[in-house]
Design goal:
Keywords: Ubiquinone. With 41 residues, this protein is mostly helical. The protein has one helix at residues 8-24. The longest helix has 17 residues, at 8-24.
Amino acid sequence: MSIRHLSRLDRLLMAGEHALEAIAGTPPATRPSPAAGIAES
């Protein structure tokens, strides 16, 4: 498996996303689950 090397911009965007999640929390899912009608086994 190849190792992914992220650019500086990618790392900056990731840090910004993590900061926003720390401040505002993880956003709730807005779409229903596609498996909502299937019983668990």
